[in-house]
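Protein modeling request. Please complete all fields; requests missing the sequence field cannot be processed.
Requester role: graduate student
Desired output: 3D structure, token encoding
Chains: 1
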Amino acid sequence: MLPTISERADRGHYMKQRSIFLLDPTAFGIIYNEQARRSIDELTLNDGVAYLAEDILGQPGAFEDVEIIFSGWDCPTMNEELLQALPNLKAFFYGAGSVRKLVTDAFWRRGILLTSSYRANATPVAEFTVAAIVFALKQVWTLNRQLISREPGMDRFQIAGAYHGSSVGIISLGAIGQLVCEKLYRMELDVMAYDPYAPAQLFEEYGVVRVDNLHELFSRCNVVSLHTPLLAETENMITGEHLRALPPGSTFINTSRGKIVTEREMVEVLGERNDIFAVLDVLADESDMSASPLARMPNVFLTPHISGSMGVECSRMGSFAVEECRRYLNGEPPLTPVTKQMCEMMA
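Delivered output (347 residues):
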């Protein structure tokens, strides 16, 4: 057990705040590598143990002096009961993306600083997306299928290619959408975006043409990539009619959430039009992705939700949480603070 506040003062540790890890032990090992743990130990008083909600609730008074929490995947919901066991909690650094499932009204009433590493998680998704866009514009998957099956192939010189003159559509300019646009800007592609909530200066900053109608975006682009968060308002937002509007040879990419697309209609359209392609990293039901009819369609490239942080990429999120803590202790503004209003718009 770590020393109490008074004991720390007696031992000369009064300058350090006590912190704990609050997340699933497996996620703890993935997100917070040895370097991150050493940094946290230097910045705060931390015993290096990944706690669960039952650990805190099962030891009344043992966590009263905790002022900082480092968390991540499978974090417990911060309800009134858990918060009462953490009366001195001041800052919560979430080393992953969406925080919607962990926050409650009780959390917001306490005025606890909350940050998320969603921008760190946006990096691998954006990199995956840009790679998929390049492959799509080069017709990689279609040509591979034709090569293996010895079907008559398309004229290679009729391929759009990933350069000026090819059009890419981005749906939503959140953290991932912005990063994708930033990377595409250097490729001299014609980039368009649909986001009714994004300010005009955001489109200007990334050299993106604003399109106010989804149907128009689909009809004008060689590739359309979806980055909208899944909310009640965005469920089934992309319909079969949008996909039918794609020009011949175009590709639809979804690295966001499967339920944003009306999946039944997508299957129907892809079955009708073998000239368009779908790159899907997500489905509405991911319990057995191989059971989906999309897994057996020749014009679909399906991956098992891997565009986000995987393997060593996850440590980037932990490092981001450490940096947020360092800034907090130094009295500097957080990089990615999360407010109640922001949380309502997050996936």
